[in-house]
Amino acid sequence: MVKFEQIKGFIFDLDGVIANTSTYHAEAWHQLADKLGVTWTDDLANQLKGVGRMDSLNMILEYGGKLNDYTEDEKIQLAAEKNDNYLKLLETLDKSQILPGMEEFIEDIADHNYLISLASSSKNSPRVLEKLGLSQYFNAKVDPATLKHGKPDPEIYVRGAEVLNLRPEECIGLEDAIAGVKSINGAGETSVGIGDANLLHEADINFANTSEVTLANIKDALDSVRV
Description:
about 230 residues, alpha/beta, 2 domains, about 45% helix
């Protein structure tokens, strides 16, 4: 485990970490699943967390036994339909959707001169940050369109460090999904899991909710691991 003093940057997932947009994604996928005749369950919703658009669609189709029912062109159209559903839901987004404590945490790490990047699988993440009024705090954003692999592959978090010109061991990644935590760990960075510690047991540090995420608590957690 690295020392807190080695950390120079923070890499954020967006949905479920910074804001409640994960609920918008879930609702948009739910709408599409209903259209496709795939039964929507909490288990399926959890599997989709932190996963890219096309991978999520394939997971839904496989879950419903319909993976081979559509051509690649038809899948692209379905994914676009989901995105349209999501964008309509997104119009209601504002600062009130920022999760407890996260605006203060982002402001605090920026004030302490840490570099900040975004590692979201959502192509709409820059728009979301703008609607939340947080764009100015982010030094860089990973463009998911440039990636070859989705989470849990480490590529997006490797890139999240690269766009800040930092080494992986100098970065902390924050996630609320199993796939995201695996991605951070695979990139060689320190992982912060936000949510059920049993579900996110692979994270280096666990917080039950976003309100617990502070610089002081992260420092204490890293120091206690080294004791």
